[in-house]
Amino acid sequence: MDFEKKLGRLEEIVSKMEKGDLALEDSLGLFEEGVKLSRECQQQLSSAELKVKKLVQFDASGNPVLENFEPGKE
The whole model's pTM is what? Predict the structure, then answer.
């Protein structure tokens, strides 16, 4: 399942649980599924972050110099 589908499913789970009308077993099942999906999404985000590169300058040969993207740094 891709990231967007996992995130959509997480939103569905939260919505169902917020209503508060589920049986305990159903709530626990949804909670477990949500935790699993949350972990998978976090892993995908971490992996994507490692792939993101930021163009900062060109070297003497005109080639771009890339560095790892660091949120919050400019």
Answer: 0.67
